Structure formats: C-alpha cells, structure tokens
C-alpha cells in the first residue's frame, strides 16, 4: 500500500499514461484492493501494479514512500512478501528520517501554494488521474480531481505544526 500526495501521483501518471498495459494493471489492482484493509491487503499477495518483470517500471519517479521503504535483508523480504510471514523487515532508520523530512517539505510547499496536501492510496489516485483529461492542470487551477478518492490519515499534530512552521519561515522570502 503506497501513500502519496497529488504531485507525486501526477509524476507517476505522466510516466505511465501512454502505457495501456500499465494503466489496465493500475485499474485492475485498484478494483481488487479498494475494499481491503491494510492487513487483508498484505495477506493478499497482490503485487504493485507498477512492477514489470519484478522491477519497478517507474523507479526514477517512484513516490517518496517507496524511496523510504528500503530493506537491507532479502531473506526477510522473501519471507514476508513471498511466503506470507508477518512483515519483520529491517530498514535503516536514516531512510525513514529523510523520507519524513522530504514529505514535510513537500507538504509545506503545497501549503505555501495553497494547494491540497492530502495523501491518497496510490492506485486510487492514479485511477482518478488517468480517467480524466488534463487532471494535473485542473488540479493546479483548484479543481478537486480526486473527488471520491478517500484521503489517508493527515500528519500527526506535531508534524502538522512543524510543516506550518516551515511554510511560515519561507513565506516572507517569496
Ligand atoms: S517502488 Fe515501484 S513497484 Fe515498488 S511499490 Fe513503489 S511504485 Fe510500486
């Protein structure tokens, strides 16, 4: 389950829009997973729609969450994602720290631009974007092109406060 913001989703959508096979895979995975809880989804073994021959087909444009989800243990990944064991995957904490910092900066930038900084589940967001013409331009113009796409939990209060402080710190320089 990948969470992302609108700009990350538009970046991925631009990479896959002309690839009918990937667009079909996104819609198929979205339809299979949209009603599942996170636990059901993990147990389902349904792979990311953007995998192609076991490789990420949009790797340079992958969402921030994918950047931060770094494993240094192949056996632990195979146990969890191939053999269905409960996920217990060692990940270097530095990646998570950088991920949180980048995500907060992105959200601060969105707030400065008065754009929506909500997070969405990746397939749901991509399916919405790919089903519409000029979704990114319309979103930038203030239209809610994600109507009907559930938003994920907002940042916890202390992160929310820090994001607002970042935005307030930069605002006078614009
Ligand atoms: S890295 Fe690529 S294939 Fe893996 S979950 Fe992220 S988008 Fe999907």
Characteristic key phrases:
174 residues, mainly alpha, two-stranded antiparallel ribbon, 54% helix, binds iron/sulfur cluster
Detailed description of the structure:
With 174 residues, the chain is mainly α. The chain has one domain. It is built from nine helices and four strands, in the order βαααββαααβααα. A two-stranded antiparallel ribbon has the order 1-4. A two-stranded antiparallel ribbon has the order 2-3. β2 (51-52) and β3 (55-56) form a beta hairpin. It is globular. The model has no long low-confidence stretch (mean pLDDT 93). The site of iron/sulfur cluster (SF4) has 8 residues, from loops. Iron/sulfur cluster (SF4) is lined by residues 2, 48, 50-51, 56, 58, 62, 66.
Kindly summarize this structure in a few lines:
By secondary structure, the chain is mainly α. Helix content is 54%, strand content 6%. A hairpin with a 2-residue loop joins strand 2 and strand 3.
Q: Could you spell the SSE succession in H and E letters?
A: EHHHEEHHHEHHH
Count of DSSP-assigned helices:
9
Bound molecules: iron/sulfur cluster
Main β-sheet description: 2 strands, antiparallel
Strand order in space, largest sheet: 1-4
Radius of gyration: 17 Å
């Amino acid at each position: 389950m990948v969470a992302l913001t609108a700009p990350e989703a538009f970046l991925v959508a631009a990479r896959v829009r002309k690839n009918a096979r990937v667009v079909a895979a996104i819609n198929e995975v979205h339809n299979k997973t949209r009603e599942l809880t996170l636990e059901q989804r993990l147990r389902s073994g349904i792979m990311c729609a953007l995998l192609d021959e076991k490789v990420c087909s949009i790797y340079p444009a992958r969402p921030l969450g994918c950047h931060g989800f770094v494993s240094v243990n192949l056996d632990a990944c195979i146990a969890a994602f191939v053999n269905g064991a409960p996920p217990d995957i060692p990940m270097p904490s530095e990646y998570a720290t950088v991920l949180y910092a980048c995500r907060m900066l992105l959200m601060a930038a969105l707030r400065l631009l008065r754009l929506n900084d909500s997070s969405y589940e990746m397939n749901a967001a991509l399916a919405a974007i790919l089903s519409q013409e000029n979704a990114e331009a319309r979103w930038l113009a203030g239209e809610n092109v994600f109507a009907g796409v559930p938003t994920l939990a907002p940042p916890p209060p202390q992160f929310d406060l820090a994001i607002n402080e970042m935005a307030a710190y930069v605002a006078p320089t614009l």
